[in-house]
Each structure stands twice: as C-alpha cells, then as structure tokens.
Amino acid sequence: xxxxxxxxxxxxxxxxxxxxxxxxxxxxxxxxxxxxxxxxxxxxxxxxxxxxxxxxxxxxxxxxxxxxxxxxxxxxxxxxxxxxxxxxxxxxxxxxxxxxxxxxxxxxxxxxxxxxxxxxxxxxxxxxxxxxxxxxxxxxxxxxxxxxxxxxxxxxxxxxxxxxxxxxxxxxxxxxxxxxxxxxxxxxxxxxxxxxxxxxxxxxxxxxxxxxxxxxxxxxxxxxxxxxxxxxxxxxxxxxxxxxxxxxxxxxxxxxxxxxxxxxxxxxxxxxxxxxxxxxxxxxxxxxxxxxxxxxxxxxxxxxxxxxxxxxxxxxxxxxx
Length: 321
Prior knowledge:
Uridine Diphospho-n-acetylenolpyruvylglucosamine Reductase, domain 3, Uridine Diphospho-n-acetylenolpyruvylglucosamine Reductase, domain 1, 9 helices, globular
C-alpha cells in the first residue's frame, strides 16, 4: 500500500459542523487503486468502512466511527470531449466543488454558475444531487465513474443510470459505489438562469438586464455569503432540511392544518408558495417558511441552533453543540 493508515483521528476537524468523535482508523486516498486497497485493508480486519467527502453535509456522533474512514482526495480536471456547443469536463471526486465552478466560469462554460459557493466535494455533491437557485448538479452530469466495492471493479454510469431526483441519486442507495470522477456537460453559450426570487431581486436592484456568466456567479456568491454562515467562522452542516414535495392529498392536509392553526392570511401565503414553486414532481413548499412559521428560526438546544438568517441551516453555535 502506498498510503498510511492513521488511528483515532478526530472527525470534528474534518467536518464543517465541527462535531463528532474519532475515526478508529482513517486514510486519505489519491486514486481508485488506493481506494480499492483501503477497502481490502478493512475487509481483512472485518471493519466497516465510511466514505468521507468534504464533510459539509454530515453530523458525526460523539462516539465516532469504529471502522475505517476513507477520504477520497482524487483530484484533476480534464476536457474529455468538445464540439461547437459543449465541453465535457472530467473532474476528480475529491475536488472542491466551488473550485470547479470557478474554473468553468473563468473559461466561459455555462451550466453550474448557479451552484456557486456550495461547500463540499464533487463526489459528495453528486451523490446528493445538490442544488440551489433553480439548478441541480444532476442536470449537467454526463457520466459518473465509481469503484464498486462489492464487485471490486471500476464502473461507469451514464446520466440516466444515476437516477437523479430532488436531492437524491442512485448512489445514495448504493453505498458500495464510491464516486471517483464525474464528467460534466457544459455549454459554450447559455442563457442566464435568474428566475429565482433572490437572484432576480439582486439584478433588479443593480439595474442589470443582461447579466453575463460572471455576473451570475457573482450574484450567487453575494447572496449566499449574506444568507449563509461561513464554515470558517461558525460550524454548520449546510442546508439541513429538504424542501417538501407533496402530493395533492398531502398538500390539502397541510393547508387544512395551517388554516386551523394560523388563519386565512397564512393560508393564502401557502397558496402563493404553491403557485410560485412549480415542479413536475409534486407541490414544492419551502421548508424554511414552515420552520419560520413555527417560530423556530434562531432556536437553540445545547449549542445546536437554527441559523437566525436562514431557517434551513443548523449551526454549531459557539462550537458548543
């Protein structure tokens, strides 16, 4: 083996939430061969394995993890295909996601600019089909390469085989498939996606009617920096709550409860939300609105708190959680 297995490594230092006990064993791997060797090492000792990406969407138990934690630090950018309209960019799973966005925008490639400043690794965000401001990673994924720890082989998944849905993918349900690289399909020309209310407001206030690619990235960065906690200053696991995707029946039950408990004015706001966030997968209701409605924005328990500026975020207040 070309790597060193470390023992009793505090996982709180490897996550943005800054909580959690130690990993009994820990290793950082730089390629698929080392990833395979890590699994073999754990199997020989009958140890469970946990894959740790950027640590930005994770809350670790104070008990830590009793097996081997593997952190894929598989890096690299490579253009693997190109025509007059598109670029296929292959990116290592361990790359910092926002570095990838910055790289693409600097070259004039459209498709991921609305996903600026999302903390985490390429692999981790692909597993979750992370999204923000009207865009999702799954929309631009062309291919995903994984190491199958059961079959002990490298496999390639086309976009349709990844089964991307709202904040979900095949890889969430297939823990034996560990992403090693992702191919993104990016456009050489594009139309700004600025319909999301916060983004539209930003450009209206600046009187920018035809934003450039760089303008869109700058807008998203500005909005996120003003609404979300800086992981360098306060522990956070990012957006903790998913927005609701409700069936018609589920929506009616929610509407009835809100009508009884909060009255007609709030019920009318719910109807406005229903019409504003139209989706083909169900009726989308922002969870942040519901958290605020319940009066929980800013609430804290033993150092864990709902962020006062954004109700989707749970933070480690004063690092006491």
